[in-house]
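Ticket #4471: structure output looks truncated?

Reporter: J.K.
Steps to reproduce: submitted the chain below (432 residues) through the standard prediction queue, then opened the result file.
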Amino acid sequence: MKHYLLTSALALCTAFAFAETETTLTLVEGHTLLISEIDGYGAADTDIVRFYINNNSADSREGWGIGGFANSDNWSPTVEWIGKAGSSWTYEYTVADIKATAGTTPGEYHDVGITINIYNDCSVDHVTLVGDVAATTEETLWEGEYTFDESWSGAIEIGKLDVQAGDKIVITAEPVEAQTWEWGGQIFVKSLANGWGAIAPTVAVPEAGTFTVDITDSDITIEPYNADPYTSNMVKEITEFGLVLQGIDAKVTKVVLVRKGEVVPSESQTLWEGEYTFDESWSGSVSIGKLDVAAGDKLVITAEPVEAQTWEWGGQIFVKSLADGWGAIAPTVAVPAADAYTVEITDSEITVEPYNADPYTSTMVREITEYGLVLQGIDAKITKVELIKSGSTIEEVEFVRPAVSEIYNIAGQKMTSAKGLCVVNGKLIMVK
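Returned output as attached by the reporter:
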C-alpha cells in the first residue's frame, strides 16, 4: 500500500482526458468498484488505484478506524483504513492488490470487484486510476429502429469487428409497450458462427436506456442451437465470426462500440538514491536543492522505520524548504512500515513556519523552485527520492546528492554526519 498525503482541498479530475494523471472511476451504487471498470482502461497490474476519503467528523480521527474494502460480497473490510490527522486522506493500492482482494468470483449482488465500507463519520469522495489516460473512442455500429417481437425471427447483424478485452458494446433500447414475454424485454448478444450461440449474459431491458456489455477474452461455453457446445471467448467470436443481436419485446435504436483507453504510466526521475537514517538527534538531512516543479507533480519517498523506535509518534519524514529557517512545506510523512510514500506538490497558499524567523505565506511550488527542497526526519531510513511530473515530459532538474563519505566541517575535517555549517558534496549548507 502507498500512503498519499493531501496538502489542499480535493479536486475532481476529468475522466477520459488526455495527459491527466488521474481519471475518476465509476462506483456502482456509490460503494462497489468493478474490476471490469479498471480493465476498461487497459490498466496494468502495477498501475495505481487511489481512494479519496473525506473526514466529516468534528475531530481529526487520529488513529481511528475509518473503514476499508473487501470483495464485492463482503461488507467486513479485509483491507482496513486508519484515519490520520487532517481533514482528508487518500490510500493507494496497485491494480494487482485490488484484483487479489476482489478475487475471481462474481458476488451475489455485483460482478467481480470490491465493496468499500466507510464509517466513523467519513465517506468516499471518489476513486481514481493513476496514469495518463488517452481518450476512449466510440464507433457507431448500427443506428435506426428495430423491434424484436415475440416471433424471435428478427436480428441485427453487425458483422466482424476488431475488438479486444476491455472494449464495450453499448446498446440503446427500450421495452415494447405490449409485453408478451414473461421476463420482459431482452436482448441476446450472439456470435455469427454456425448456430448463433450467445456470447454474453442476456441484456434485460426493463425501461428505456443504454445498456453496456463488456467484451472479455475469458473462456466461455457457447451453446449454438443446432450444434454441440464449444469453448471460446467473446473476442475470438466477434473478430473471427462476427456479432449479431437478437431479442424479444424490445426495440433497439443504436449500437455503439466503445474502445478502451490506454493508461500510460507517469514518468519519474530519481532525485536521490542511497541509504540515510534519520535518528533521534534531528541533526541529519537529505538536501535535494532547487527543482523545476509544477502543481500536480509528486515526490515519492521510499522509506522504512528504524528498528529501535525512540520517537513516540514513530518514524517520520519532514518535507521542508531550504529557505532560511527550513520551514515545513507539506504535512509530516508518517513511516509506519517499509513502503513508498507520496507527497503532492501544490501551488495553494500555505503558512511556512521557519524555526528562527516569523511565519510567512508561500506555496510549495515557489519554495522548491526558488529555494530548494530538503528532507529531515526521525526514526526513519530513506533509500530513494523520486519526482513524478504531472505531464508526460520530465524536465532537467538540479539536485544535491549528499553522501556520508563526502561531509566536511568548515575546517576541512571529515564528518560522519551533517550537522551545523558544513560542506556536503562540495556545497556549503546549514543543517539544523
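Triage note (M.O.): checked the attachment and the full C-alpha cell line is present. The first strand starts at residue 2 and ends at 5.
Status: closed, working as intended.
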